[in-house]
Amino acid sequence: MSFILAQFLTGLASASSLFLVASGLSVIFGVTRIVNFAHGSLSMLGTYLAVTLVPLFGVGSVLGFWGGVLAAALCVGVFGGLLEVAILRRLYGSFELFPLLATFGVVLVVQDATLALWGPTDILGPLAPGLDGTSEVFGLAIPQYDLVLIALGPLVLGFMLLLLRRTRWGVLVRAATEDREMLGALGVNQKLLFTSVFVVGAFLAGLGGAVQIPREPANLLMDLNIIAEAFVVVVVGGLGSLTGAYLAAVLIGEIQAFGIVLFPEITLVIVFLVMAVVLAVRPWGLLGRPEPVADSTLPAGAVVLRPMGKVGRLAVAAAVATLAALAWLAGPYYQQVASEILVFALFAASLQFVTGVGGIITFGHAAYFGLGAYGAALMVRHAGLPMEFALLAAPAAGGIGALLFGWFSVRLGGAYLAMLTLAFAQILWSAASQWYAVTGGDNGILGVWPSPWASDPATFFLVVLVVCVAGLAGLRWTAHTPFGYALRAGRDSPRRSAAIGIDVGTRRWAGFALGGVFAGLAGGLYAFLKGSVFPGVLAIPTSVDGLVMVLLGGIQSLTGPWIGAAVFVGLKTLLASATDYWRIILGTVIILAVTGFPQGIAGTLADWTRREGR
Amino acid sequence: MSLLEVRDLRKSFGGVAAVDGVGFTVAAGEMVAVIGPNGAGKSTCFNVLGGQLRPDSGEVVLDGLPVTGLRPEALWRLGVGRTFQVASVLGSMTVRENVQMALLAANRRSWSLTRRLRNEERRRADAVLRRLALLGLADSACATLAYGDVKRLELAIAIANRPRLLLMDEPTAGMSRGDRGALMAEVAALARESALGVLFTEHDMDVVFGHADRVLVLHQGRVVAAGAPDAVRNDPRVRAIYLGAAAEAGRA
Amino acid sequence: MTVRLPPLGALLVTVAMAAGPAAADDPIRLGDINSYTGLPAFTLPYRNGWQLAVEEINATGGVLGRPLEVISRDDGARPGDAVTAASELVSRERVVLLFGTLLSNVGLAVSDFARQRKVPFLAAEPLTDALVWEEGNRYTFRLRPGTYVQAAMLAREAAKLPAKRWATIAPNYEYGKSAVEAFRSLLSAARPDVAWVAEQWPAQFKIDAGPTVQALARAEPEAIYNVTFGADLAKFVREGKLRRLFEGRPVVSLLGGEPEWIDPLKAEAPEGWLVTGYPWYALETPAHVAFREAYTKRFDDHPFMGSVVGYTSLKAIAAAIAKAGSTETEAILAAFRGLAIESPFGPITFRAFDQQSTMGTFVGRLTVRDGMPRMVDWKYVDGAAVLPSEQETERLRREK
């Protein structure tokens, strides 16, 4: 009995930590509709600043500790405000993935900046003076700092609710969260409001990071570790609902606390399992309000599909011919890089088909890429089949996976859909990491090399070229068929589509599954390109890479993903072989690209040619 | 026999009856206006008829066929076209593609993966566009159209598949006065030519009394008056609950 | 480190470079891959190590009369990126062999690449034993003692403890799993009376320390075997101390004495833990003193375990090439098998049958001196004394 109580209290302390970070994310999302991917980075900065400032303010003094923690949080708040003014302000009202991409750029920049400023070694902060022991609670020895955290969660929640209910600022924030038009009617200086919301949200993130210093050393992996869980909390709680976020944090904290007692090996998946179950039962989270599949926020101008003109056809033919020539002219390394670009172009194009054409915003497209890769690898290693058959298994695996997960996902809209798809990808990732007998766990599946006739790098490159060009052409063709148009109709206006006889739900499902087929094909090729498959192909970074490629190239353009993949993979490969600080450069490029060329490279090029033409 | 027959339709939200036992008919070729103050239940009634909402009880019969609670997709195939208060078209497509899409979906050919959409149903689409004087804009992107043209396009989409019944929610909202008359005249002509039943709501009384064959007055979820425009206009109950206020507003 | 920018635009329009025969003073090019951005705390000391060795070798005339040049690449902690880097190093940079890697899956991916492309690969740091046993191949050698050896050293010591009820905690991935499995089977074999009463598998670098510690304490173990490291270890130690998990309970901790892993804890390092590690401050053999002085002078820092591994890797490579008398793959492979060299830890040999080196490590107890973690009562355990025999290895390789 006492164990259960003790475990419950510990779970509450973890929940509070999680809530502090998630609350800022929730406030920012509620008002600005920005999914702030850099929120984990803000929290990490809070931790690093706190371990730096607290000693300056005086180790061992109560004032020094809490003063340092508060100062760290304030610094992060100011930094958040600067981010808003410098970058995110330019992106309001744009397609919801643009801010996500920009903040992903911020993540990369902050990672390298933190490494440069604080060095690679973990920094263990001081304990909280006067709170470094345990106290008796119902006869149990509970760490005093846990008690502080347990109180801090509800305290911050109460304070925020008070702020929202009792102040003019709060009224404005709630107005912005619930009814955008009303905000305009109130004659509010929207810019100032949004900036202030970012400051508050960043402050909360910083505070959440800073209060962790007695529990966790400042380290460079904190940003991505916390962000995924913070997203989960916000989504499970219901977007924009602070109380919901707290409930979700408690739910997750407690399930984790007791889950590891019953099933010690469940740690990898438990959080995402909770999310998947909650969203399957309550699609809008615990306290969220239904957010139906809405009309697309993609800017509608100038995105009409046109068949490729003569110039375009010539350019594509020239590109394919040039690529094919690489098989004879280039060395194995450039063939490898070109193969990788082609594979990711196919992956990105399948994602663009789902997200750009279908309007289904998925954060978990890696699931189908990974299923393809594992499907192919398992055929080779366990069934002993040659590459030719394994490459047929790949799209099948991707398609079946997408069919299954899509059934749960596509009926949701917006961020909920994105998070459910992410949850499915994470569940697969954890299965791949833990199902040793089949997947080899973290050590992956080795020896997935092409059949002897194609094992020469140049020959395999031609195989990749043929398959990818066929895949890309297939996706492009599909977009031009009635099927593709009907999918796009559902994206443009679900209401109009239904009124002319298009079953939008089924159509989205089918589109999602088709995207999975092509992603799976790309994954299968990737397995043979690398010779091995590891759980990482299913992980969040793979999905994010895909999104970056799509957005960099231009989400609206069918050609965009090809260009985006070439630029992203090329740039990354170039930078990684040239400097250790490739992340800061790549991050800056992404931020500049999103703020300067929101239509992506292909969209911007199209604009230019149109303008020239006039 | 009537084209559309609605019997004792009811729909409530959280205990509040938005539509409370409504019944009426629409004959082929007839234009029926539904009017009433805000909150009278017009939109709910329309959304039930259009399949966006399911009624709690009551019956909707289309040409002898019960269609109560069918989804919009099914209703479209049975010949019910629909326009919305805020025009809803497919923004990323051209004017012609919008109509092509409507025609393909009606014939269950929108799943095809073997042909390009460009060449499908082109002739029929162009005929519809010509009828509504939109052919000149056929290759324009919807996003570049003036709002009046968007409204016309929406009408073109709604009638593309030669529906028997057309549901129009505030067809002229947001249009200029001149455009309003033109659009409604077009609708009236269509109704006569192809025996199309038209049920529409409208705030503009000039449009209502200028084009409706019959007028139906809703108030608090019930039909309080129905009949020829002149009869309704002179009905003292209607004047009391509705027309007075609207007339004031119209004059102001 | 050598940083080379590939020519812009070369990605698409490169013309096959005709590699002329190597001139006598052309450097011998070696390709290094490691997670320099992903896990800098563990990999930067390693890089310093091989850099020092390169400088020493080149100062004394290089190998076969040619200087050594290392072309180094970051793998971003992703196996896929490591394969791309390996491909670049082999085909564009024309390195004669590959070395490096820290993460087990990255090591395995590169090893499989080496097999496919027939390039020698010295896996410097990865701990997974699959590299030399289950997934071993004739192109892959490994320097550092693997999970099995380290766990075996600790299991020998643990068997001497009176404790019968054991609990384990390890990160939830392959390294943690095999570290626990090896320790459990070896300790159970030595002590059939031992019972395993609890296990915890926190997600790596995401440990929820409070509940985990309480779950362990609830089973009332008499001793604990720990495999967590990095930020997880710091969190585990703080929570464990706070909740008195370690009071009266011996703890055995894999790699817990390696400065990379334990130094961030400073004065809070758990005293009395039985660990494998590297007492750089107390190892006074001539070979090590010379290495330590050179390293400290060059980098103004003390050496880490990774530094020794990096340094020894390069020394081993140089020795292998010198022994081979050429940079041909087969000659290098043949030279590596049975190669004996002097390392800062003493003499080591690359066993011919499984291509694993006999480099050992140190077993001792943790304490804190002058605010820093230190190992006491340590001894060097030679890998040769713990590694499975040739027959045993054959069995492991066949199980594949």
Explained architecture:
The complex is a heterotrimer of chains A (614), B (252) and C (400). By secondary structure, chain A is an all-alpha fold. In chain A, helix 1 (2-32) packs parallel to helix 5, helix 1 runs antiparallel to helix 8 (190-210) and helix 9 (222-237) crosses helix 10. Chain A contains 25 helices and four strands. Helix content of chain A is 73%, strand content 2%. Chain B is α/β, with parallel strands linked by helices and 252 residues long. Helix content of chain B is 38%, strand content 24%. The radius of gyration of chain B is 18 Å and the shape is globular. In chain B, 47% of the residues are buried. In chain C, the strands form three sheets. A seven-stranded mixed β-sheet of chain C has the order 7-6-8-9-10-13-14, with helices on both faces. Chain C has a five-stranded parallel β-sheet with strand order 2-1-3-4-5, with helices on both faces. A two-stranded antiparallel ribbon of chain C has the order 11-12. Chain C folds into two domains: 28-146 and 284-360, Response regulator (Rossmann fold), CATH 3.40.50.2300; 148-281 and 362-398, Rossmann fold, CATH 3.40.50. Chain C is globular, with a radius of gyration of 21 Å. Chain C is built from 13 helices and 14 strands. In chain C, strand 11 (340-343) and strand 12 (346-349) form a beta hairpin.
CATH architecture of the largest domain in chain B: 3-Layer(aba) Sandwich
Strand order of the largest sheet of chain B: 6-7-8-3-9-10
DSSP helical segment count of chain B? 9
Q: So, the CATH homologous superfamily of the largest domain in chain B?
A: P-loop containing nucleotide triphosphate hydrolases
Task: Compute the CA-based radius of gyration of chain B.
Answer: 18 Å
- Could you tell me the radius of gyration of chain A in angstroms? 25 Å
Count of domains of chain B: 2
Given the structure, what is the number of helices of chain A? Answer: 25
Structural class of chain B: alpha/beta
- Poorly predicted runs of chain A: none
- Overall 3D geometry of chain A? globular
The CATH class of the largest domain in chain B: Alpha Beta
What is the makeup of the main sheet of chain B?
6 strands, mixed
Q: What value does the average pLDDT of chain A take? A: 88
Strand order of the largest sheet of chain A: 1-2
| Contiguous uncertain segments of 5+ residues of chain B | none
Helix content of chain A: over 70%
Largest sheet of chain A: 2 strands, antiparallel
Average pLDDT number of chain B = 87
| Terminal Cα span of chain B | 43 Å
